[in-house]
Task: inverse folding
């Protein structure tokens, strides 16, 4: 069943995802094309709508032609479970909780940093990075930023120094949890991923607790800490 997204919710979703003209927005279950058209018209993005109902696809294409956006917006008839949408930088949904959960493994495998916005329906125990409250009634939406995958044992070496340590990272979606590695002097007290950006609080490195911040770069973790006005950088590699 198709239900159109309220205009103010469309705007709130796209703003929360910080859509720009550099983005590729894909709307799963695009209906009459409202979200892809808004992404192109208001934010300058290139957009694609994927819709199972061919009549709605034709209607959306008509609206895009009326708006003069056929060069920036396309609509395709297709099954969202068999369509490749991995090239999206922003993914929008209004699908229902059961469908969201069925899609979740595929969403988590997308490129880290991809922004996912769902109208009304959440992802169960994958907590959103932001709750979006719209101005109409009790309408709300959810924003997730696909996290990098860093679970496992890592060895960190100080850049330009002699210090090194190992640590075991346990990951649950964007949250990092405590688990000391074998024979490690460190334990992870907590941490968080926002796409490729990472913050980790550890015990046992300097004065407790110590916050390391940085990013995931390929198969390396590049982190730094400042204590007593001294910058220390570390490069982590999987063990």
Result:
């Amino acid at each position: 069943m198709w239900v159109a997204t309220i205009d103010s919710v469309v705007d709130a979703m796209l703003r929360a995802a910080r859509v720009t003209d550099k983005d590729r927005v894909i709307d799963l279950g695009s209906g009459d094309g409202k979200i892809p058209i808004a992404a192109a018209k208001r934010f300058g993005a290139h957009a694609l709508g994927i819709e199972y109902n061919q009549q709605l696809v034709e209607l959306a294409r008509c609206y895009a032609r009326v708006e003069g956006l056929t060069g920036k917006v396309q609509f395709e008839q297709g099954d969202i479970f068999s369509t490749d949408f991995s090239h999206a930088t922003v993914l929008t949904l209004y699908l229902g909780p059961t469908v969201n959960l069925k899609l979740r493994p595929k969403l988590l495998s997308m490129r880290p940093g991809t922004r996912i916005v769902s109208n009304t329906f959440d992802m169960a125990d994958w907590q959103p990075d932001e709750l979006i409250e719209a101005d109409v009634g009790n309408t709300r939406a959810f924003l997730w930023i696909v996290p990098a995958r860093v679970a496992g044992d890592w060895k960190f070496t100080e850049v330009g120094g002699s210090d090194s340590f190992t640590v075991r990272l346990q990951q649950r979606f964007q949250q990092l949890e405590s688990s000391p590695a074998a024979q490690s002097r460190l334990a992870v007290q907590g941490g968080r991923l926002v796409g490729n950006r990472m913050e980790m609080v550890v015990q046992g490195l300097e004065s407790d607790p110590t916050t390391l911040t940085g990013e995931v770069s390929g198969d390396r973790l590049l982190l730094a800490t400042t204590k007593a006005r001294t910058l220390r950088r570390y490069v982590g590699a999987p063990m």
